[in-house]
Amino acid sequence: MSVKFRPELKLVESLPYWRRSLALRGDQLADFAALQDGRFGEGELDQLSLGFAGRASSQVRQRRELRHSLHYILPTNEILPPEAAEYFINRFTKVGEAVLDPFSVDGAVPLEASLMKRRAIYSVWTKQARHTTSAKLRPADLAEVALWLQTIHFRKPIDLSEYKIYFKNFYHPDTFREIWHLRQAVLSGPDRIADFVGVLAAGLLHGNTQQFLSAFTTSQVALQPSEQERLNFKRAESPEYRQLVPRLLSRVAHVARDGFGRELRDAATNSLLCGDPRDLTGVKSSSVALVLTTLWPGWVARPESFSWIREWFFGVTPKQSLDMPSKLIVNDGWGEFISEVIFELARVVSSGGRVVFALKASEESESILKEVVQNSSAGAFVAEGSFYLATDSLSEFDPQLARDLKNSSILYQVFRRK
Hints:
Order of helices and strands: EEHHEHEHHHHHHHHEEHHHEHEHE
Number of helices: 16
Largest sheet: 9 strands, mixed
Strand content: 15-25%
């Protein structure tokens, strides 16, 4: 039976961002209790299949508590959060089947697939994405990190010329020296512990509390040096010394609190890192049960939480990061690029398998995406339905604002392979 999502269904995001509640348009609220289990149809919904949204706020809180602690290594991609990944993987795959994320941003999909005993296949487009996904699939424990850190000489003097140009408004010189030495150790070569420590440190590079290494600043997006200078002047503050190692070890303990079970040990050998998603040579034809990914309209793999400081930490020079355009693949070339990706997905996805794209919704996004998929795959995929994760809080939800709400929400578009 084909999957059809009721168009009036809204998954409304309350504040803070991880708490989600279910809201239906107007008179549909009364029908919710009567929805039947076991089927996805035009008139019926599977209540249990709405797991990541929950049927009550208490269940929503419980779902977040069940989010594996490894997801907190770095801020997650809230267009496709772990709860959404878990929902689609559970709905459309079975244990042992392959789940592909061709545009992995934060490793949430590969990690959830591994935790649910699926085979994770993924492709990354930035150094930060590669390090983050690797850290989630091959984590290190507290003892390993502590021993690894002892090999670094944090007090060795460094050249501060780069610091004076780009970083003086963010860090105390001694803090920057420790960060610089850690960066050199992380970039010295591919290493499981180095990847893990590097991603943890990247999450501490800038923020607005004492747990971060920087002066008071934003945590999601790194300000420009001139903007940070103005912020420091406004607050009458200057960067103070913040020791790196204690904060890093505390962070390790936090993200490792759920432990690393057999699923993650198996993921280290069973997961597959691919290159360009237009050429998935290492993936057998008709071997993937689910493609689950974030699609950035007009470009690929440039997350909104872009941080030039994190990019620098993973090997990109500050000048390159600050001058790098926000669109890696410009609008003019996006259609051709995504068409080639979808053509390749038609080869690797098995008959009856699904492709789920998550993207920022607009009035045109759903129809354009359907047209691109249909044309690029020569009709191999059939659109099954879509629903929206709204960015407004539940208290602000107003059925009369459905049009505005739709335009500010996240679209999940589902396609089935013939």
